[in-house]
Amino acid sequence: MIHLQRQSKTKITNVVFMGMGEPFLNYRRVIEAAEILNKKMGFGARRITISTAGIVPQNSSNGRREPQV
Fold it and tell me: What are the structural domain ranges in the chain?
């Protein structure tokens, strides 16, 4: 992402986890990446989107753990 931003000279304002398989099948790593984007790279939580078809048991608990993403 840093490389892309430098090459394009365009500010990246939003991040979408999409089109890479079901993100909740790799829940821990996706949340870890979102936390790095948020806490270390300064992306607001409302600018990070995780697009999912949904894993029902995982989906029901996700909102309680990560309410802003």
Answer: 13-65
